[in-house]
Amino acid sequence: MNTVTMRSGSVIPALGQGTWNMGEDPARRQAEIGALQLGMDLGLGLIDTAEMYGEGGAEEVVGAAIAGRREQAFIVSKVYPHNADRRGVKAACERSLQRLKTDRIDLYLLHWRGAVPLSETLDAFQALRKEGKILDFGVSNFDMGDMLEAEALPGGRGIALNQVLFNLVKRGIEWDLLPWSRKQGMPVMAYSPLESAGRERDRLLANPALVAVAQRHGCTPAQVALAWLLRQEGVVAIPKAADPAHVRDNRAAAEVALTAFDLEDLDRAFPPPAKRQPLAMR
Ligand code: NAP
């Protein structure tokens, strides 16, 4: 499994598991816990969650999945922007820790920018890190302008990474944010690497060029979409899978080695940005 070094120096796996839409339906809970545990068995110990997902339900699912094996997990969680003031961050983090049934969050992110001044959120993150409640902090859905603003603030250079929408269809960050992040030694964590659940994912996975590359490798289109992300320097992908077959598929994507020929075909079908684009969020 490839690894990526965060700006803090901590090393994390390049492939993890997402949890959006988990923890919403008690009838699916055991299957979701089982899927995350299967992923951990296969080496996908990095698990991304948020207080928002299932309004805490996803964190509870993660808490159950990591019970008794905390050391194998790397937990990423996120604070709502409306909880991102000094007191709010502390309280939200405590609630997340309780739901996760752990004493620390490995990486704590601001989910997206809201009305609270960034400097206040960064102060709160640094205080939590000092207390050992979080080990690293970062941001999500920050565009180039947000990053430059954050970098200039006290604590801004402590931002370990930025989690943004990035996949074969949504390549806008390749214009500026991705090269800039690389220059800073800051990884990008790619969310919705398969274009999320629903029609957009179905359209991506049915794309003839993607299907043709998958056939050449004897793998699935989803594995090619993930392998395309995983071959890029400083990129972490966090596909969400509740179906055990998908979990196995995703883990095996880390072993798919795309050729220059594959990459050319994919570039033709999913062109890189030709100009600056606003940061995609869905
Ligand atoms: P995604 O990972 O792109 O796609 C998830 C969907 O793809 C699910 O329906 C899943 O089905 C299916 N799937 C998974 N593996 C598959 C495979 N090998 N073959 C075919 N289908 C497969 O979408 P996402 O959940 O939007 O993004 C991933 C994670 O990123 C989230 O779960 C969340 O942790 C994070 N995220 C963060 C933000 C943010 O604002 N920071 C926003 C969105 C997402 P099953 O579940 O049935 O297996």
From TrEMBL:
Transmembrane segments: none annotated. Residues 15-268 form the NADP-dependent oxidoreductase domain. The active site is at 53 (proton donor). The record marks 78 as: Lowers pKa of active site Tyr. Gene3D superfamilies: NADP-dependent oxidoreductase domain. Substrate binds at residue 111. This is Aldo/keto reductase. It comes from Massilia atriviolacea.
